[in-house]
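Example record used in the benchmark description.
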Amino acid sequence: MEENWATPVGLLRTKSYSTSHGNGQDLQLIGTSGWRGKMGGETEPLLQTTETTSKSYFIRTIIPFLLLQASVGLCSSLQATFYPIEAELKGATASQFGAVFGIIHLSLFIFGPIVGKYLPIWGVKAIFPAGFIIDGSTFILFGLLEWVEDTTTFLVFSYLIRFIEGVGAAATWTSNLSILMAKFPDRKATVKAWCDASFNFGLTIGPVLGALMYDAGGFFLPFAVTGSAILISGIIVLFSTSFPEMEQGESNLPVARIVFNPRVLIALLTCTVGAYSVGTIEATLSSFLSGKHIDVKMIAVAFLVMSFCSVLATPLFGFLCDCKVSPWVVSAAGSVLMFVCFVFIGPCPYMSFIKVTFISVCGSLVAQGFGSAALLVASFASAQIAAVAAGFPESMEVQAVVSGLFTSSFALGNFCGPTISGVLYDAVGFEYNLLVLQGLVALTFAVNLLSWFVPLQVSRPDQTEANVSATTSSTEDGNKTEPARRISSGTYPELPADIIRSRPAPPRPAKMMRSYSTSSSVYERTNMFSF
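Model output (structure tokens):
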């Protein structure tokens, strides 16, 4: 049969195709060129794919998700200014309530991979609403602790609610990234960068808004407002976004094989180091600068400088990773910036002749803001690339697992940073703790540079086992089944992702059709292509 497509096959970037075989029926292929090709040479304009790949569609789709991410960021930092005051009024000490801030990251670390694994089984339409409902509701519930007077009860429920809040945050983070990457497969790093920027924006303004609302309405008001903001923004996403379809069934993805792939592991550890450095700065820098007789208002400005630089840098590095720059190179560059920060911010012991000033601290935090943003954005892109290169399909199921692992790695760094660095700060001081950070970022620089230099060996799963599953079709009497014949790799060799060839197949019942989502090109694949 003659194939005549509106777009040259070698230049086609496929978004979706549908097939229908039978008498007089055509095979239709939809490409991003804005035309639909038919068997027989006719073409007709197509507006759907032009819309779904345009910048305006991208902006309209992502804005509700960014509002949700900003709300989650607000909830993460809102209570930093007033919760210790309230806890002390209830009779709790700093050692008793200090871990309340870190237990949410422990929960994220535990439940991030779990959500990623079961997202393909339960589906985003179940996981996403469950995530933002749990997150928003538990935050409102946390505000009700204002009326709990018993110290032990106050602390127990503080820990319990924050832990459950981490479960909701893990579901929200993982499903957000999976949905957006499935809708915009060519902009993965950009999507991750904008989500991070929104989260960091909420994280930055959270303490300020929390203090203002606490002064205006007491302990409950900040939690009620921001918890409601999560619920409202989640509902907006739920009713304004068409969710990509995922196969719901038994998941057979080997998560251990993904996480222990060397390149995936390097990307996840890079993320952990980036989060660890941010947690260390937030936990120890304030006390160090206070000992250097720097005013508390100036310390607040210094932290604002770091957060502002991180918010600015995340979209920039996301754009670079999606364009021409290897994410391994971006991670290596971020490691260099962070190393510069840890040399001059103390300064470190071998640079002790440099005097600590507000200007030197702010300059160092600029480098830290840009460097940590580079690590967190590029490591996510590196993990996605490494998983596909290891032979896993570039599907939404794999994306969900990688997103869950990334959320877990980020939470691990956020939990270990303040915890370990707090101990080191008391044991050896801020300056010598900088040497530990320098060693970590130097190692990160080396392994990312090595990953860039070493040629990437792309493993492709066997065509007959991974890409085409054996299906069965019922005979007319309904008592016998015959296995579907598999595609012979010798007759139909494997082609690049953006080239699709097909030949007519016998008609299949409509009930045999199944929907799959991929990330390199989003299309619908049916069992009618099993031969």
